[in-house]
Amino acid sequence: MKKITVKASARTLLIAMTASAVYSGASYADATLDRILSTKTLKCGVQLDFPPAGYRTANGEIDGYDVAYCKDMAKALGVNAEIVETASPDRIPALVSNRIDISIASASITPARALTVAFSQPYVSYSNVVLTRKDSGIEKFDDLKGKKVGGVNGTTTEQQLRQIYKSQNWASAGGDFITYNSEPESYLALTQGKIDGLMLNNATAAALVQSGQFPTLAIKGQAPVPVDLTGMAVRKADTDLLRWVQVFVWDQVKSGRYAELYTKYFNSTDIPSLSVPGVDF
């Protein structure tokens, strides 16, 4: 009888431990959304050196497509929006270290990043172009071969350009590849002649050229890479928040708000699709 009692006790303990683990996991998953609602604050990680997604106006005010999305999200939740400036290489670290609740920072959805964070479906789409100086002699993407090119460390455009640089052996033609830690560093390097070209999304490149702050820069052709669909990111354990964000993005498109914000910030009525044909994210 004693042996049976021990076995039963062990089985009871195992069941209790399993239930506790499941409950704890569920509680952790619910924690972020519950805290956002209880504290009345949504902390959004946004790049503010990446117009038109995020930037500061001439008056020092924070604005941009991603900023507007954060504010819309906070309004839908009935809370206040707190914009946390987050540099490109810090987008995922800021999230996993709990400095922000959600990253709304034009992050490309990739399998590698999805090992660390959970993505919403796409909320904005970009194509990529060549940004160079007017006096560089570069007129199209292929002219970058043999030139000094660069990118921001860890970004999808940097990785794509590096892959082309290596696969086509641009170094053999005298080329060089240089990485930077932030978008502004790469723009400055380009204007100073430290590099000859960048691969950059079309909207940001256009915003930089039109700003008047970079009078020597020009856009010279499309880059031969796929359209970049970007998503919002949350911590992998925040399943309730992720489900809510997915519904929010769907509602932004359905209500016409996505088209409204895209037209306002990207200065275009040609609203891009947020899906891959034949794929239901």
UniProtKB/TrEMBL annotation:
Signal peptide annotation: 1-29
UniProt xrefs under InterPro entries: Bact_solute-bind_prot3, Solute-binding_3/MltF_N
Entries under SUPFAM superfamilies matching the protein: Periplasmic binding protein-like II
Domain Solute-binding protein family 3/N-terminal span(s) in chain numbering: 41-269
Nucleotide-binding recorded as keyword: no
UniProt similarity note: Belongs to the bacterial solute-binding protein 3 family.
Name assigned to this protein: Transporter substrate-binding domain-containing protein
Highest classification ranks of the organism: Bacteria, Pseudomonadati, Pseudomonadota, Gammaproteobacteria, Pseudomonadales
